[in-house]
Amino acid sequence: MSLKQTLIVYETVDSAYASGEKVKELFASYPEVTVTVKRVEGEKGSTDFIKIIIPGTNGKSTGGSSPTFGIIGRLGGLGARPNRIGLVSDGDGAVAAIASALKLAEMKQKGDHLQG
Predict the structure, then answer these.
(1) What are the pLDDT digits (tens) for 55-67?
(2) Using omega within 30 degrees of 0 as the cis cutoff, is the peptide bond preceding 82 cis?
(3) Minimal CA–CA distance to 116: which of 54, 76, 45, 58?
(4) Which 3 state secondary structure label does DSSP give 113?
(5) Where are the beta strands (DSSP E) in the chain?
(6) What 8-state DSSP symbol labels residue 69?
(7) pTM of the entire structure?
(8) Could you give phi then psi for residue 93, rounded to 5 degrees?
(9) What is the pLDDT of residues 62-108, one digit of tens each?
(10) Do 45 and 90 form a contact (C-beta atoms < 8 A)?
(11) Where are the beta strands (DSSP E) in 3-98?
């Protein structure tokens, strides 16, 4: 992961309007990357679950046999509005996971493909 991707993701999610759809838009320029967003709503608010798939050259998602590389996180919330404004400390895990996916997407676009 690099500083560039971390800053891009940080700026994307450090907003009162942050959402899974905003993260999905971040990956729109990477045609081989699939992003799905599922929103779950409850009495106290909502949470977006984001799944980012960057297929490898021989990965199972493309019919290959290479193991799947995954970054899976059970992360804290990005914000605690209206009690707290801005990105809260629990948001660092989400920033790191999304920034890692963004770096992998950029690597793939530049010709560096993972097997799985």
Answers:
(1) 999 998 888 999 8
(2) yes
(3) 58
(4) coil
(5) 34-42, 45-53
(6) P
(7) 0.89
(8) -65, -40
(9) 889 998 878 876 666 777 777 778 888 888 889 999 999 999 999 99
(10) no
(11) 34-42, 45-53
